[in-house]
Amino acid sequence: MTAPERYNLRLYVAGSTPRSMLAVKNIRNICERHLAGLYDLEVIDIYQHPEAAAAAQIIAAPTLIKLAPGPARRAIGDLSNEQKVLSTLSLPITDLHEL
Q1: CA 78 to CA 83: how far, in whole Å?
Q2: Distance from C-alpha of 98 to C-alpha of 29, rounded to nearest angstrom
Q3: Predicted confidence band at 5 (pLDDT cuts at 50, 70, 90)?
Q4: Of 18, 43, 57, 97, which has the most beta carbons under 10 Å away?
Q5: What are phi and psi of 92, to 5 degrees?
Q6: Domain residues of the chain, as ranges?
Q7: Could you tell me if 12 and 41 are in contact, meaning their C-beta atoms sit under 8 angstroms apart?
């Protein structure tokens, strides 16, 4: 039996704004609910690391990028629509009654 794939996610935020903090909270909740133990989440502040934002071609924040498993996918915004985030990032969707 093969081990489940790990999800490598990177969230770009713009400082400690309420929208940025909400995006961090939302993606952590989504990951714990749907990917518990199977994800790595890196949060990057584009004000502190503008070179990282430029390299990733970030044009809006918050932006979430799923780096692995491929293909890479992006979601922009506060990530409050859980079903849309799951769909956009091709993450496994559990029973809709649990959402």
Answers
A1: 13
A2: 13
A3: confident
A4: 43
A5: -65, 135
A6: 15-62
A7: no
Across the range 34-51, mean pLDDT stands at 94
pLDDT of residue 28: 96
Average the pLDDT over 28-56 and give the result.
94
58-62 long-range contacts, CB within 8 A, separation 24+:
58/12, 61/12, 61/13, 61/14, 61/20, 62/11, 62/12, 62/13, 62/14, 62/19, 62/20, 62/23, 62/24
Residue written as tokens 């996610």?
9
- Among 12, 8, 11, 13, smallest CA distance to 67 is for 8
Average pLDDT over residues 37-49: 95
Helix, strand, coil in percent for the chain, rounding step 5: 35, 25, 40
Q: Which residues pair with 43 in a beta bridge?
A: 11
